């Protein structure tokens, strides 16, 4: 890993991609830690709407926020500074964007770059670190991990995932109790669609409700969908239990690779736009088996549910933001702080570090031994992995029946450069 001389420079922090219930906890960790080192870190700027804020020189001065407001970020969902789905092209294809970033950083004396996001963000952070070295500008680029998909390599888990897993497990459990009470004369199957384009970590969380005696069928992206086997499994569970719950990942796909939920469009990162697997599966059950059903798509609810966030997840999100600053102060560049699991029971972990060269553009999928042989459930090994990540409650304060969440002032920094048009 590369190291540079550390002096009192300003820092830049940005949020990227889909936000989570705990990404602001990482922001809190970064900003609070930087404030404790004012002798070495000057101002902390945030990009309005992620990396776009850096490209357009739309910077937010977090120094205008009180300590109490920054502290409240730990309990507030979503992205306090705005996020974006904007993928920087390769250095060869669009060098002007990277050079613009360096120009903005130079203009505002920024020597620390903290990029809070998933796999694509890790790639961007790594490219920026490479370019800064090539251009002779001393910028330390540290990636702060975040993704509900839990698909970043090397780290044991990703901030955002534990809270989504907890939300999915709780929601699936409560809905299953509802179905169980109505099965005699009404609904017999409940289908819940969750996020996860290529990795089935979120769907796997639905399997945790089996401990309550709930019959569950899980459809993973890692397992090719087999219509006949799936319907046979549902029929068997309904016959033996009177009802069943189906957890389907949005990334569930057929043998030919086509998604059950593909809409034919793509997002800013070039990924297939998904959504709609639940009604496809529910209607399939109705047509083949005749069972009455209800379905739900968790969508934004699963990643915004700070009220039911995992205490473990919140703690790790903060600690990884905190460690990102500490790594920068030690002179590290092009790295990402990670969670290293020490034991399952009792759950113990430590914060490690990985080189971005080993993280960028690598996806971590569900291990086959985490999925049952029939492909429709999770193994005991998977449960041992998941259970510690959903432990503990860290609820926000409530007022008049609603959670108290903070909205920052987000005051802009004066621009110093000519306008820049995004292509």
Task: Report what the structure shows.
The chain is of the alpha/beta class. The chain folds into two domains: 205 residues, Rossmann fold, CATH 3.40.50.450; 146 residues, Phosphofructokinase domain (Rossmann fold). 33% of the residues lie in helices and 20% in strands. A five-stranded mixed beta sheet has the order 4-3-2-5-6, sandwiched between helices. Strands 8-9-7-12 form a four-stranded parallel beta sheet, with helices on both faces. The chain has a two-stranded antiparallel sheet with strand order 1-13. Strand 16 and strand 17 form a beta hairpin. Helix 4 crosses helix 5. It is elongated, with a radius of gyration of 22 Å. The N terminus is likely disordered.
Write the layout of secondary structure elements.
Elements: E1 2-3, E2 9-15, H1 23-35, E3 41-47, H2 51-55, E4 59-61, H3 67-72, H4 95-107, E5 110-117, H5 119-134, E6 140-145, H6 161-182, E7 189-194, H7 201-205, E8 216-219, H8 227-241, E9 244-249, E10 262-266, E11 272-274, H9 277-289, E12 293-297, H10 299-304, H11 311-329, E13 332-333, E14 335-343, E15 348-355, H12 380-386, E16 398-399, E17 402-403
Parallel strand pairs: 2-3, 2-5, 5-6, 7-9, 7-12, 8-9
Antiparallel strand pairs: 1-13, 3-4, 10-11, 14-15, 16-17
